[in-house]
Specification:
single chain, elongated, mainly alpha
């Protein structure tokens, strides 16, 4: 007698609020993580001119709070259920990201930034425990593998979309605003293309025009060009961070409305 094959994915699971809510929050969490870890670190090294060591030290409080948050959230979820910690984690992570966006500048104090990043780290650590456990507690045991796979896929999609979407936004703002600022500075169109290629492609092009700025007037123009590139990159980064923070706040709203306060099989 042949057994009925289980479907690869039972889409009816998404009708369960705790399941679909936690899957969305998992996506938002990893989407927001890349705006902090990748783009902020890149900004510190390129614009703030922080060394690799200084950048790593700046992110240490965030890593420590992420670990501590996940350690202490397990008993919290056991006592109160996943709704409160998941919501609190989303709000903390969003707060850390939005404050980072507010204070990030070429002259940012790395010590201050480190403590702000720790807020986001604590939020991510608190959030990921209920996000991982909730899908497994609201499905039947035979569907636990399916639920875990959906959660992992949602995380991976959040990471992929975080890099692709936020990267596109940063690049679009960088090239668009840089071209406008170069035009405002009176830079010739032929030189504008060289500068934009140098910023976005990592090279100076065949002419190496920037390196030929030997006289004081040319050096001043080169400085203005570099500052314009940094400002355009910063503008794109602020947009990316704000989008990530807003998405996490939406995740908090989803947690409140879709996730139960106590775990029980539905």
């Amino acid at each position: 007698e042949r057994r009925a094959a289980h479907p690869i994915l039972d889409v009816s699971l998404f009708r369960r609020g705790p399941f679909s809510g936690s899957v969305f929050v998992a996506f938002a969490a990893y989407f927001g993580t890349f705006s902090i870890f990748f783009f902020t670190a890149l900004y510190l090294e390129v614009v703030v001119n922080a060394s690799a060591y200084a950048t790593a030290v700046t992110f240490l409080p965030m890593a420590a709070c992420l670990i501590l948050g996940s350690v202490f959230t397990g008993p919290w979820v056991a006592r109160r259920g996943p709704r409160t910690p998941m919501t609190a984690g989303c709000v903390l992570a969003a707060t850390g990201i939005l404050i980072t966006s507010a204070i990030l500048s070429p002259h940012v104090d790395l010590h201050t930034l480190g403590w702000v990043l720790s807020i986001a780290g604590a939020g991510f650590g608190i959030m990921l425990v209920p996000v991982t456990s909730t899908p497994l507690t609201v499905v039947e045991p035979e569907h636990s593998g399916m639920a875990a796979s959906v959660t992992n896929t949602s995380r991976e999609m959040g990471a992929v979309f975080g890099v692709a979407v936020l990267g596109s936004i940063v690049n679009s703002k960088l090239t668009g605003q840089l071209a406008a600022r170069l035009k405002a500075l009176g830079i010739p169109p032929s030189f504008q293309s060289v500068v934009i290629h140098a910023v976005t492609g990592g090279g100076l092009g065949s002419g190496g025009a920037i390196s030929k700025a030997e006289h004081s007037k040319e050096a001043a123009i080169a400085t203005k060009v570099i500052n314009a590139a940094y400002e355009a990159f910063g503008s794109g980064l602020h947009v990316a961070l704000n989008i990530s923070g807003i998405l996490l706040l939406i995740g908090a709203l989803v947690s409140v409305t879709a996730v139960r306060g106590r775990r029980r099989l539905s």
